[in-house]
């Protein structure tokens, strides 16, 4: 089984991914960890229009992210 990692900003609406890596400085990674984004957690893309902010569901909480932030979260696409 091949694994396919993409940035969170590339995940299509309705798709589920598993957080594999956070790319950024200590402050950024700490803030995401405080929001529940830790390696291994499942995230579901709720809204992603391809521009502007996107909304994800993580640990039963909806969170909005800017595209720059979302590009620093690497996820493995869950199988359909």
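^ Assign residues to that structure.
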């Amino acid at each position: 089984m091949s694994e396919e990692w993409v940035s969170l900003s590339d995940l299509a609406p309705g798709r589920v991914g598993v957080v594999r890596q956070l790319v950024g400085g200590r402050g950024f990674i700490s803030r995401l960890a405080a929001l529940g984004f830790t390696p291994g957690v499942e995230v579901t893309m709720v809204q992603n229009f391809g521009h502007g902010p996107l909304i994800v569901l993580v640990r039963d909480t909806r969170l909005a992210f800017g595209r720059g932030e979302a590009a620093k979260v690497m996820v493995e696409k869950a199988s359909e």
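The beta strands are 5-7, 16-22, 42-47, 54-58, 61-65, 73-77.
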